[in-house]
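OP here, attaching both records as promised.
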Amino acid sequence: MSYLLGVDIGTSGTKSVLFHENGTQTASATAEYPLYQPRPGWAEQEPEDWWRAAAESIAAVLAKSGIDAGEIACVGLTGQMHSLVCLDGGGNVLRRAILWCDQRTAEAAVELTETVGCERLVEITANPAMTGFTAAKLPWGRKSEPQVYEKTRKILLPKDYIRLRLTGEYATEVSDASGMQLLDVAGRCWSDPLLKSLGFDRALLPEVYESICVTGRVTSAAAKLTGLKAGTPVVGGAGDQAAGGIGNGIVRSGTVSATLGTSGVVFAHTDRMLLDKKGRVHTLCHAVPGCWHVMGVTQAAGLSLKWFREQFCGEEEAVAGRLGEDVYVLLDREAAEVPAGCDGLFYLPYLMGERTPHLDPYARGVFFGLSARHTRAEVLRAVMEGVGYSMKDCLEIIGQMGVPVREVRASGGGGRSILWRQMLADMFGKKVTTTNASEGPALGAAILAGTAAGLYGSVA
């Protein structure tokens, strides 16, 4: 009997989930941490918070499950994509990580395009320059924080920083690396011509592997902090979207996932590399070896509802606390009382700029059609509908690229809402289902770990 551990370094917290080799979830634990927004449009976190949360949640899972750590065959890592961790020569963090939703790099993205050329950039990286992607953060740092840039010897993504702390190895894998916009996405390797044209040293980057490759083993120091057994293999893993795709079974054409997390993502598998020349959706390497995926992103999906809850729902928070209920269940009931269309009130969910279908870091959220007859309930439902329409934009573009869409699988925190799922089904005109696995990214990371350990013949 073997177990697999999936560790998901999210934006709001890190979740560690233990699975039996048959896919049954055995135990789960989450540790949260803050997000810092020192200026409008900026978003940062402390990598040390990620590591503390990873160590705490892993230890908690082992304690809950009661299994011997030696029964864990392999560890899989996943997490938020694109975020930049800058390290000095000793592996020490030089500044807070600049996150995926950070929009400070608008000018740097333009500079990136002008330096490389838009067509050439898309040819190599499969995407136009993105403010949220890692590559644009580097020229911003070179210009705005030269004292940090000059000391930087390695850059890592969030899950790969946890890998470093677990194993001592500097490594990444193709799905997360292709979101850095420094990878030759067709060739699944770092692009030396691109690095040269941008003036970035190849030594800044970790080694890049396929997602099912073992990239290191748990050190004795990490074992003491986490409870894992020293020597336990750690697999490449995947960015959260690719891992979530695997956890939702998006490993063949025809089935698409719609994830209502902090961001909203419509994700589709493809056996060949497909491009949207307008750059409205992303093409990245899938964690399934030799495959790719396309995805449309709504920057503020669940984030829009979370913002509404925090600003306007103090009474519901108090009632939920007294009843021992999830506050979002109460909000669902309130929104369900409002007829579809919210009596002409519409919401554009661009609180953090936008990617799909408008690649615009300056886009902002809007309520329009507001009248004196509208109540807070209509505003609440308009938030949910606005996110749904934005995800419909994503699905339509993916369909226009020739990707078949026969079924949509909903996941993420928002995907637990029956009301929100029904909205998506109505808007998409497609059957929307859920799976019996609630932890998509962590399960995907565990499946990659199980494949590396030889428990499964392939990811599919």
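Record two, same layout:
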Amino acid sequence: MCIRDSYIMKLTQKTFSILKNFSSINQSLYVIEGNVLRTMSEMKSVMAEAEIQEMFPQSFGIYELNQFLEVLSLFEEPDLDFDSSYVSIKGVQSASSNYFYADKATIRTMPPEKSFVLPDVIESFLISDSVIKGVMQAANVLQLPEIAIVGNGENITIEAINNKNSTSNSFHYEIGKTSKTFKMIFKVENIKMMVGSYEVSISSKKITQFKSVDNNLTYTIVNEAASVYEG
């Protein structure tokens, strides 16, 4: 691949917000040439993919993504000039910073280079932003460690639970109908989605995918071992 000497662009606020969200999944990021960003948690339990407006001219690594974003925040609408070994960040009043790329080998957990296709989908439904916020707030208030999406053969609920304690407090919303029986469990700390409503797809392989209704943004989360699908 031939790398151009430099390429100047600006990041939209939406892309900045996506990068900030991705930093909560993995501190490091390897950007592939093009307009698709992907990341994966160190435990490989959470993957995220976003199609963005900008086109990155080359592949490069960022070892400390939060630090990189903080450097960008020092500038107002900075120009990013991509050189072969660093990005030059330039603002008004002659302010600038050269931020050097990290070697690919130093990146903590590389995501797949292609989009993940969810296998054997057993159920799909919509979940609103207000419901996601509500169940996460309930988990925090009640100090519950897990979120579960449950199908009982009639209804689908999303619940804040402690799966190891059947007598603990709980909280739930009814969010749809189903003929299937399943219980897909997530650790609260693995719920990393940006604000918004999502189309949720559940796999019999104990993997759940959240596709944003409003953005080209997808999260794939591996469910906990105690999750079940009975058909």
